[in-house]
């Protein structure tokens, strides 16, 4: 560790990884061969709108620690774009009138408002497929490619993200225990964040202990992200958040803040942050970027 | 060809392949590990309700011709279940209020009526993922598995089935040319039927000329299926069809019958039937089952 160059800068890393994944998304959504222009416009709108690109950043960051500056980030582009496609599809469908019925996302009209509801449903459907197609065009050797596909599929489906969304919808006007709330978040947002880290680790050539450590790291920051979301939901106003303040509270959805109170929710956030940093300790290489990413998640203001 | 045993019987083949795929679907949807019971109930309801199981039958039938009675049909179960999952997901989403707004499908309430709209959207989403998961658990060797995944993905997404559905929705109250109508159907229903045949062919070990012949066969029966659907839509009553008679005509959607008239639509159907049979002529093995399947598609009454 003594020979490390200067600490990586999170902001420039996030900017670079965003640019990489946006370039790949733009490429894949602009390939010819479609007869459905409006559908692809809606896919573009949803996948390439403003966003933190946190999941793609995790793919790159978790791969890079095994290689340092020599790592060829291009090897991660398809995986990074794939996790962003799944994320974008889930947001389109979550925002639909039959689901959370949100008109605003990141300060812009949601997909079904900017286009129409049918088009939004289909754009979400096609972005899910596009995620798998991206991995299939990846240049990784067949067994690695299948591992990446497996990670993405098990995180996304009825035993992953979609299950979380189903539990979330059923929780309106119900009281969940802290354990049930945690299960919901581990599925709804945690599973894809976990898969992003694991896909990066696999691309970087992690052994099983390293894969396990990055999994623990990702599980902790995934949950921390959600706790911070719940805190921001009641402490930050609409203009900063890009969505109505108190939206979850208004829907009478259980949150960490409603179950624990604001102070204990902040305590929970600190605990998860420590867990994430602990998980990094067994890893070789320069993990400072991953530490900064964990710091960013608990400190972010929107 | 002179030593062939008695002609395969289509009805018993369809029954057997339906049973195989239903068993595989039931298994995969019953595996433990989900915390979202209602979601899986809706997935079961949609994927295992009454249906022709035409796409799975094509997978089995196209694989079998290269092996005859010695073929181990179990090798096709995951692919057969995967194409049925994609088909079931597409029907759930097609039936939604924002899309075709159908309350009845195969004589039963559609998924969003039997459950609710949010649950139906998610069940469709999760069935799409389940299709890819099924192929990933397949026992085929890695390169074949990747080929199967590629066939499924390119047939399903924004350059396949979903594009077809998008064009279909945009066609309401518009006049399409025959060419545009054909493009729509080749994407909306044709692409998955084509992929089913190609996946069967790949599982059976087809060479590239054989794969090409089965592709031509599937393209012809896929379009024939749709022409027959349009004919049935105006000639058969609701009780037999399991959906309201004249539904497409009421929605003012262009059909083969509205564009060509009933007689010319029937002529078109006969032409496609011939094309399918011609494509089979270059194939080795016993293609009588595929011939019977083509006959069934143009003669079916619901």
Automatic annotation (TrEMBL), chains A, B:
This is (2E,6E)-farnesyl diphosphate synthase. NCBIfam families: FPPsyn (NF045485), PRK10581.1 (NF007877). Keywords: Isoprene biosynthesis, Magnesium, Metal-binding, Transferase. InterPro entries: Isoprenoid_synthase_dom_sf (IPR008949), Polyprenyl_synt (IPR000092), Polyprenyl_synt_CS (IPR033749), Prenyl_diphosphate_synthase (IPR053378). Coiled coil: none annotated. Its cofactor is Mg(2+). Signal peptide: none annotated. One of its GO terms (molecular function) is (2E,6E)-farnesyl diphosphate synthase activity.
